[in-house]
């Protein structure tokens, strides 16, 4: 995926733009109605009007995508996110009752399989919404996410944090990515094909191809040992 150059305010005609981006209009309308908390014809029409004005006069860059939505994988993604949210909230709340325990925070670097803007953003947002971890930096060109972990020991260590983040990315890709993107990430396998385990970094990735994989791993180890320790 790549970001295209920003188009002019009325490029292609405002009506054609509204028709092409009807999903965005619908989503913005839903957000407007939810903000008001009142489902009425007036709020729906006002939301559609405001969404049309935003798309016409303040267009955002278009994002080329070949992905698709898989309903079952999407349900799995949401269900697992809710479960992680509940468990992590309980674990973080229990930290307040451990009076003699000092949490040892750290910054952990994770190299994602697919550095696409959309998938990286979704993965980063879902990781940050779960209590106990926060994405503090993301590198688009290298596909690296840097997460600050509240208590590295309670999270199971740096390797466990990386594995959990890669598992989350795998669920995001299975819910939204195309078959070609799943193949390139090592997550799509034909019947009877022996694939790499979920969460493992697929062979033939960018780091292995250009020789940067070892350097990235050394950087991640240095980050885990000292840079984020408190």
Word description of this protein:
A hairpin with a 4-residue loop joins β2 and β3 (144-149). The radius of gyration is 21 Å and the shape is globular. It is mainly alpha-helical. The protein is built from nine helices and three strands, in the order ααααβαββαααα. α2 (22-36) packs across α3 (41-57) and α4 packs antiparallel against α6. Strands 1-3-2 form a three-stranded antiparallel beta sheet.
Question: Could you list some keywords that capture this structure?
Answer:
230 residues; mainly alpha; 9 helices; 53% helix; disordered N terminus; disordered C terminus
> Mean pLDDT across all residues, rounded?
77
Q: Can you give the helix content as a percent range?
A: 40-55%
β-strand number: 3
Cα end-to-end separation:
37 Å
Main sheet characteristics: 3 strands, antiparallel
Which structural class fits the helix and strand makeup? mainly alpha
Shape: globular
Strand line-up across the major sheet = 1-3-2
How much β-strand is present in the residues?
5-15%
Which stretches are low in confidence, meaning pLDDT under 50 for 5 or more residues running?
Answer: 1-11, 191-213, 225-230
């Amino acid at each position: 995926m790549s970001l295209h150059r920003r188009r002019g305010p009325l490029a292609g005609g405002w009506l054609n733009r509204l028709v092409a981006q009807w999903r965005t209009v619908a989503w913005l309308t839903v957000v407007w109605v939810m903000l008001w908390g009142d489902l009425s014809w007036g709020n729906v029409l006002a939301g559609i009007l405001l969404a049309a004005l935003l798309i016409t006069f303040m267009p955002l860059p278009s994002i080329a995508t070949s992905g698709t939505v898989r309903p079952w994988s999407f349900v799995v993604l949401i269900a697992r996110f809710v479960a992680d949210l509940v468990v992590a909230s309980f674990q973080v709340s229990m930290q307040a009752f451990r009076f003699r325990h000092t949490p040892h925070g750290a910054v952990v670097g994770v190299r994602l399989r697919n550095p696409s803007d959309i998938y990286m953003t979704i993965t980063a947002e879902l990781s940050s919404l779960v209590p106990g971890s926060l994405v503090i930096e993301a590198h688009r060109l290298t596909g690296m996410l840097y997460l600050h972990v509240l208590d590295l020991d309670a999270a199971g260590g740096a390797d466990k944090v990386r594995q959990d983040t890669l598992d989350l990315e795998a669920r995001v890709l299975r819910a939204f990515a195309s078959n070609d993107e799943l193949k390139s990430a090592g997550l799509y396998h034909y019947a009877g094909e022996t694939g790499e385990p979920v969460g493992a970094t697929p062979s033939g990735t960018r780091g292995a191809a250009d020789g940067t994989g070892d350097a990235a791993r050394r950087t991640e180890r240095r980050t885990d040992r000292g840079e984020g320790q408190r």
